[in-house]
Write a structure and sequence with these properties.
- Helices cover about 35% and strands about 15% of the residues.
- The chain contains twelve helices and ten strands.
- The chain has a five-stranded parallel beta sheet. Strands 3-4-5 form a three-stranded mixed beta sheet. The protein has a two-stranded antiparallel ribbon with strand order 1-2.
- Helix 1 packs across helix 2.
- About 30% of the residues are buried.
Length: about 350
């Protein structure tokens, strides 16, 4: 196939990359320029890590063999593993753990720790602005029959490992045929049983593998917003008529929290069921005040901000060295801001 190499690439109307691409690497370069694609985040991570480790081989001579993974699909239980995935807020950062991602991670919320105080109010505000910026929020108008009346937002997630280990009561659906449809219907039925008559907007997961292939049985006050309608969950969560976000354990919970919207999570994220910063039931979410919730969510978000890795971290051999030495103990924010990295190159 003959590839046409553009002389100028415009990621923005005001920004151009001139003769940035070469015929030999045009596909890789185009993927890297499209940072919203998951494959690009993975490619960038491993490219940078590989280069740093290759350039500073002498630092890693004494390490035991370690397998570095993206997600948990090919984990060897007998090997020393480190697992990376998309970050929580914003998604362009990275999460890392020797145990797995999301609820399997070693990163776990402890409400007795004042993460907000550790991070500091100035850094918290900076991280919040950055996360909101990457969400690229839009001001939504009232759409008749959708967000023109008060509603709760139910965001449908995938049916991967996050469901299998969610401790949500929906784990039995993992691995079943038509799992996406089964999960969606089970969620809708539970909410309606526990909160009859409540108005719910249900947003379909945007990933094609998570799309619904058959119709759902919806209560009268429910409305499915399909992915083809191009109405973003993020924007619905920000709307004044949104009374809260509901999910099993998707990242939309975090995105609702960062917007100051109440959230109900049936499953686990980076918290235990007995120590949740969010609500466990829709009724509790709707009947509570924001004050205590805001303090808890601020503290939880501070922990997430401190625990996320930046692409630039992997350019620093000292940081990579500390990461590989104790992947279950290092806190990237502290590594980044500490002046005590004394390993000599």
């Amino acid at each position: 196939m003959n590839l046409v190499v553009p002389k100028r690439t415009n990621p923005h109307s005001n920004i151009s990359f001139v003769r940035f691409l070469r015929r030999s690497n045009v596909e890789a370069a185009m993927r890297s320029l499209s940072l919203k694609r998951g494959a690009s985040a993975k490619t960038l991570l491993f490219t940078v890590l590989n280069r740093t480790i290759s350039d500073y081989k002498h630092l890693f001579n004494d390490f035991r063999p370690t397998d570095i993974h993206w997600s948990e699909r090919y984990l060897d239980p007998n090997a020393s593993n480190i697992v990376f995935e998309h970050g929580w807020l914003p998604r362009v950062t990275y999460q890392m753990s020797p145990l797995g991602t999301h609820a399997r991670s070693h990163v776990m919320f402890d409400s007795s720790i004042d993460y907000y105080h550790e991070l500091g109010s100035e850094q918290f505000e900076r991280c919040t602005r950055r996360a909101l910026g990457h969400l690229n929020p839009h001001q939504m108008e009232n759409l008749p029959g959708i967000n023109d009346k008060p509603f709760c937002l139910l965001t449908l997630g995938g049916t991967d490992f996050n469901l299998k280990y969610s401790e949500s009561g929906f784990e039995y659906i993992y691995g079943q045929k038509n799992a996406n449809e089964l999960q969606a219907q089970a969620l809708i039925d539970r909410i309606e049983t526990e909160n009859p008559g409540i108005r719910i907007l249900i947003t379909e997961h945007p990933a094609k593998k998570c799309r619904l292939k058959s119709h759902l049985s919806l209560p009268e006050n429910n409305r499915l917003v399909s992915a083809q309608e191009n109405i973003r969950s993020n924007d619905l969560a920000s709307h004044p008529n949104c009374q809260g976000v509901i999910a099993i354990n998707t990242n939309s919970i975090h995105e609702g929290m960062i917007k100051g919207t109440k959230a109900c999570a049936y499953g686990r994220l980076m918290f235990r069921q007995e120590d949740k910063p969010v609500y466990s039931s829709v009724a509790d979410m709707l009947n509570s005040t924001l004050s205590d919730y805001e303090i808890k969510t601020r503290n939880y978000l501070s922990m997430l901000f401190m625990s996320q890795w930046e692409l630039t971290d992997f350019m620093d051999p000292e940081i990579v060295l500390q990461l590989l030495k104790a992947p279950g103990e290092v806190i990237p924010w502290k590594l980044r801001t500490s002046a005590e990295l004394t390993q000599k190159l």
